[in-house]
Structure formats: C-alpha cells, structure tokens
C-alpha cells in the first residue's frame, strides 16, 4: 500500500510536469526558490556475457522515474541555505533514493553540504548510455574474484551512513574536502554473508571515516583536477586478522572543451592489501556522439594472504553512444543508443583457484528513452 501511494504521487507529479513542459516552479523570487522536477529513464537492454552460467544471451528492460524537490533561500549579504531530495521510483516497483542533502554557505564562495550526495567526479566517462566492465560490473563495488576497474569512487558518496563536505571557490581555483562516515564493509559485499576479500571472509567491521580532498583549476578551455581518498580508521574492516580497509587511492583528470567538442582524460591508482589497481580512460563527446576507452591493470600478490593470486589481470573496455535530442519536436525528450565491449586478459603467474578471473568477453547494447521535466 505504501509503495502504491508513492507511485501514484510520482505519476501525478510527472503528469503535471509534462503538461507545463518545464517542471513545477512553486517559488522563484530574489529571496529564494522552490521547484519540483526530475526525469524519466527507460532502458531496453541486450547483453552477451561470459558470466551468465546458462550461456544464454540476455534481454531485459529497466528504468526509473526520478522526482527532484529542490529549494534555496538567500540573504541580502549573499549567504544561502539549500535542500534537495531525489526519490527514485524504479520500474521493478522498488522505491530508492538518489540525492538527499542540506547545504549552506556563501554564493560563489564557500559551502558545507551534509547528507547523501556524490562528490567531485574524478573519472568522468562522458556519454555512457551503457557501460559495464568484465569481472566487476560496478565501478564502486569491489567483487572478490573479479577484476576491479578502480575509478576514485570508493569515498565519493552514496555508500555509507553519512557524508559531509566543505568546498570553496577562489576564482578559477576550486577546493573540496569531502568525507564519508559509517560502515563500509558493504564495499566488499559480493552476495555472500559478510563479504569476502581474496578468499577470506570478513571477520569484523566498525565505522570508517574516509576523506577525499580535491583541487581543481580552470585554465581557459582546459580544466584539471587532482584528488586522493583514504580511510583514517584502523581495522575498520578486518579479514583473517588483516586490516583490509587500509586502502589509499589517487586520481588525476583533465577536460578540454571547445565549442561542441569535449574530451576527458582520466587516471586513477589504488594501493590496497595484496593488490594495486591502475585505471586510465579517455572519452570524447561531439554533437551527441560519445566514444570512450577504459583500461584497468590489477596487480595481485600473496603477502598478507597466501594461496590467492599472483600476477596481473587486465581489463579493456570500449564504449560508444549517440543521442537523438528533441525527438518528435518535443523539447527535452531524447532517444539514446549505447553499446560496450569489454574483455579480460589473465596474466597471473600462479593461481590457487581456477574459478576466479575466468571471465572473457562481454558485449552489450541499449536503447534508452529519456525525458527531463
């Protein structure tokens, strides 16, 4: 009954927003604003994955309706408070949450944000209508026994009990210090009770405190940003007596934008227990056409845990997308096409188990219907 009410409310809001073609602006004055908006996203998917035990090709549909409630209040001296909430109504019938935060500060100056959000994107992938990777199918979730495409997202957000961030603009210079607080043992969850790491079951966990400073600088058409992320609490996640929460990542990203062309170049490196993960990526977007490539190198060793894996596992992923915008002359209605191809190269020197890192090539294609209101 509760989900039925929520879905009915979402349908009413979407219907009203579509009828006025530009969302619902309830308040819009010099002192502040409050609005209701959002978007609808529906995907038709095809995948041919080596990880499918049945060996069959996969066809499915997924999607969601996102409703955004956003408000800001300004003062005469330039200070503000802001709130945003984005409930997600999934096509499966589940109700989830995207962003939900409270912020305050000085316009075009400093700001403090707390709640649920994503911090600065240190590995932008451009127009990624459909992008997955052989091995790990989520670039912010470590899956034991699968290659990991690390992208500076372990402390970015939406993955713990709480977040708080301080940011400030100094002209072309932008500074950000974000943190995540709470249990992060779910980072290693792979469907088993408690999760595993290098074949070892997680023994215990306690609240982590992760920090993620970012420095970004705009130079004409070019922007560059550098960052790191690490956990400050010892033994936050322990497996077989080893602190596997001891993970430190570093990232560097650059963007060049000129007229209709935008190019991103990314680098990320993670130093973790018994493994190092390095990822690089390049992508471009031009007049609705997006193409990209991501390469990940995973180096494994048997120091803290024996009998796991020793050597390299590499992942290469190509992807492409195209957006048809304003379809049927309806503003903000798009049809997007996307596909990816990814493969794993296993160069391990030794391997005690034969059921890990054995995935080969994956391919996927998607048609997405998208409307923003």
From TrEMBL:
Q: Which UniProt keywords apply?
A: Signal
Query: One Pfam match, by short name?
Result: Porin_8
What residue stretch is flagged as signal peptide?
1-22
Question: Which SUPFAM superfamilies does the UniProt entry name for this protein?
Answer: Porins
Q: What is this protein called?
A: Glycoporin
Organism phylogeny: Bacteria, Pseudomonadati, Pseudomonadota, Gammaproteobacteria, Vibrionales
